[in-house]
Amino acid sequence: MCFLIAGIAAALSAFCYAELASRCPSAGSAYHYSYICVGEGVAWLVGWALILEYTIGGSAVARGISPNLALLFGGENSLPTFLVRQHFPGLDVMVDPCAAVLVLIVTGFLCLGIKESALAQGIVTAVNVFAMLFVIIAGGYLGFKTGWTGYEVPTGYFPYGVDGMLAGSATVFFSYIGFDTVASTAEEVKNPKRDLPLGIALSLSICCCLYMLVSIVIVGLVPYYAMDPDTPISSAFASNGMQWAAYIITVGAVTALISTLMGSILPQPRILMAMARDGLLPSFFLDVNKHTQVPVNSTLATGIVASILAFFMDVSQLAGMVSVGTLLAFTMVAVSVLILRYVPPDEVPLPSSLQESIDSYMLRHNSDAQMINGENPAKSPGDPCLPLLGEKNVAVDCTVVEKLEALSSCTLDEENRRKIAGWTIMLICVGAFILTFSASNLWFSSLIRFTLCGAGGLLLLSGLVILTCIDQDDERHNFGHAGDTADQEFIIILFLFEIIRVATWVRVSVWLMIGVLIYTFYGRRHSSLLNAIYVPKAHVDEIYRSSGATL
């Protein structure tokens, strides 16, 4: 039940990622979506948090591989001396050379190309799935043979009540993380509008089924209170006389961790490349190998930093910071879906290098519009400011952007719809925050807590009702299937509900403050938006086609 509820929650988030990935197929994942829908400043914080998430997550996973490798080869002393963990009492540091070497090996694989890394990922995943199928089949046989003794407990089902089940769901939710990695490779997918949603949905469904089947078998073999928390699966088989099964399970654990390590390192170079493309990071991270089509500099930088952390630091103390980065990214993705459905950006920033193409497009558009109106253009060919759609009251000294805005001006009703939708989305976010904050803080008095929960719930419900009555933006049809109205915004509540420790928030706040300083003194000064030309999105494709550039 825990895995099922967590899987449903992850599916809601996966639907958001699938929709945005098919609408906006570009590298950067949650950073890219926030950049388009919310703005550069918020997108920078999301990208900065994702850098923390993937770096620490990859390092933590790497340090978990070496003990399992040692167990597989007969103990820690069986590993080569240069790979054995060493403890330095004076510095109180446990270095892990094996973890650092594994990170560098995985980084090398990722530099070979997306096809090669996908092949390696497929191999280790196949071994992992085989190990899980072994657990399900062999464990099912043992369960029917022994009578499923694990379920014969005096407390019955739900020994800790529904609250315990929900707490377990929050714990196992992060075992579903990984579909955001699929979204980050959007630029390397042949048909992103079809393949990305399909890949995300299939991978999540398979994971959910395997997790549920394994948990059904293991809990049925051994009562929950008698499980070894460190090695629950292998100890369950050992207690039923199958000690040799520990080797197969350990192989599965090693391949699962290697697969997770690859999934942690793979998306970060794409995010760094997307941030550098927007001018927020140095152009060093922009370099893409012509043969492998991989951002090599970003991949090497990610691998080197992750290997150093895996070698020196006990990153398990910082692992809670991964949760904050994940929750922040998922929340902004859910908000981005609402914005893209109801109030998508009506202007797109284009680089100043396209100024000539924009002027040429405007001259051609003006000429066509005047011919349709039966007019003979009286302006000289060198005059860049021609009347738009035959309107004589357009200022002679108007800019290209103003002419394009006049060309695609929306009606008053459309403007009102966008304003109402924008305020309603903010209402939903505020209501969700108040509701989850008050519900998860038990130190509030009952009166204050229930009052805040009621106020937050009322704001949330009112916002949902209003959004249901508002038509979605017509331009949503240009981006693919938009889905039903306002179902996925509940994901905001779900991800804000997770309680993060104060110490973790302090560490994350320090990291985010460092990011704010970098953005203030470097990112803003080198942003590609400084010299950008904002044009209505209806004309962007035509301008790019006329210039010969690519989106």
Provide a descriptive summary of the structure in words:
- Belongs to the amino acid-polyamine-organocation (APC) superfamily. Cationic amino acid transporter (CAT) (TC 2.A.3.3) family.
- The chain is mostly helical and 551 residues long.
- The protein has two domains: 1-344, Amino acid/polyamine transporter I, CATH 1.20.1740.10; 412-472.
- It contains 20 helices and four strands.
- It has helices at residues 2-23, 30-37, 40-72, 97-111, 114-146, 161-172, 179-184, 192-221, 232-238, 245-265, 267-277, 296-312, 320-342, 355-372, 400-407, 412-440, 446-469, 490-496, 502-526, 540-547, and strands spanning 86-88, 93-95, 347-350, 533-536.
- Strands 1-2 form a two-stranded antiparallel sheet.
- A hairpin with a 4-residue loop joins β1 and β2 (93-95).
- The longest helix is centred in the N-terminal third of the chain and has 33 residues, at 40-72.
- The relative contact order is 0.14.
- Residues 377-398, 406-412 and 479-497 have low confidence and may be disordered.
Provide the structure class: mainly alpha
Give the total of beta strands. Answer: 4
Whole-number count of domains: 2
Total of helices: 20
CATH class of the largest domain: Mainly Alpha
Strand order, sheet with most strands: 1-2
- What fraction strand? under 5%
Oligomer: single chain
CATH architecture label of the largest domain? Up-down Bundle
Largest sheet: 2 strands, antiparallel
State the shape: globular
